Amino acid sequence: MVQGAIIFTARKFNKWGKESVVSMKVTRRQFLKVTGATAASFALVDLGFDLQATASAAKELRIKNVTPTPTVCPYCASGCGLVIYAERDANGNFVKLLSVHGDPDNPINQGGACSKGAAMFNLREIYDERTGEQMINPKRVQKPLYRAPGSDKWEEKDWDWMLDRIAEKIKETRDSNFIHKEKLEDGSEIIVNRTERIASIGGSGLDNEECYILSKMMRALGVVYLETQARI
Ligand code: SF4
User: Fold this and answer.
1) Which DSSP state fits 139?
2) Ligand 1 neighbourhood includes 75 CB (under 6 angstroms)
3) How does pLDDT run along the chain (232 residues), one tens digit per residue?
4) How many CB atoms lie within 10 A of CB 1?
5) Less packed terminus of the chain by CB within 10 Å, N or C?
6) What is the number of the ligand 1 atom nearest to the C-alpha of 112?
7) What is the biggest distance separating any 2 CA atoms in the chain, rounded to whole angstroms?
8) Where are the domains of the chain?
9) Which residue's CA is the closest to the ligand 1 atom numbered 6?
10) Which DSSP symbol is given to 213?
11) Are strands 223-228 and 189-202 parallel, antiparallel or unpaired?
12) d(Cα 29, Cα 46) in Å, to the nearest integer?
């Protein structure tokens, strides 16, 4: 303690779990003014309790083995940044999802998240209605589903099958409906190289770079009906 002043120190954790020590110097007068409003805490300190150490230990336990992962909300074009907190074992293997919060460092949402974004937790895990136990969301689709033309049933397929099927259908549709040239009013022809039987609708999960690549690919195929939910 410095003469005439009291130094407070506390351990602080940022959102990535990194610890730092902060200290604050207060005069005896400031100290008495503040503690006058917190007589109960003062009494506990008088009795020998180290409240600072207790608070720090509790904080440490809550973030033990927790890893934060920054991501982007998939739900709308705002593109809010979120941080996913997950518990991991000593080997770094995923144990369970703990929470999803708005990322305070993201310039778009600055820590906020609408109710839909905040509910991203439930994409993967939910709480059992009867027991309250945390469990994997049974409705979560984890494999591609395919419904054949005219069928009312969905079939699970692997990604290779699905991507081959999509490529086949794109090629078949494009080849059978490709417009190479178009006639103008004066009877002359111009090359247009387009297909009007394929449309592309981008999802809100696409960022600027992905939209750029997608639009390049669609233009190369001759797709003219091209839309996306514009992103950040
Ligand atoms: S948190 Fe809400 S506003 Fe932000 S991207 Fe997600 S859905 Fe959109």
Assistant:
1) T
2) yes
3) 445 566 656 655 565 556 666 666 666 666 555 555 444 444 444 545 555 655 555 455 556 788 999 998 988 878 899 999 999 888 889 888 999 999 999 998 999 999 999 899 999 999 999 999 999 999 988 899 999 999 999 999 999 999 999 999 999 999 999 999 999 999 999 999 999 999 998 887 777 888 899 999 999 999 999 988 765 4
4) 7
5) N
6) 1
7) 99
8) 5-63, 66-136, 142-172, 177-232
9) 117
10) H
11) parallel
12) 18
CATH T-level topology, domain 66-136: Phosphorylase Kinase; domain 1 (3.30.200)
Q: Tell me which residue has tokens 């009867």.
A: 130
Q: In what order do the strands lie in the sheet with 94-102?
A: 66-72, 81-88, 94-102
Beta bridge pairs of residue 232: none
Structure tokens at 116: 């839909």
3 state SS of 11 = strand
114 lines ligand 1 (CB under 6 A): yes
- How far does the centroid of ligand 1 lie from the alpha carbon of residue 72, in Å? 9
Residue 221: which H helix or E strand, with range?
helix 208-221
- Which residue type, as a one-letter code, is found at position 76? C
Q: In a 3-state reduction of DSSP, which class is residue 174? A: helix
Q: What is the ipTM of this complex?
A: 0.99
Atom of ligand 1 nearest to the CA of 118: 1
- What residue type is assigned to position 57 of the chain? A
Q: Which residues are within 8 A (CB) of 149 and not within 5 positions of it... i.e. 6 or more apart?
A: none
Residue type, 198: I
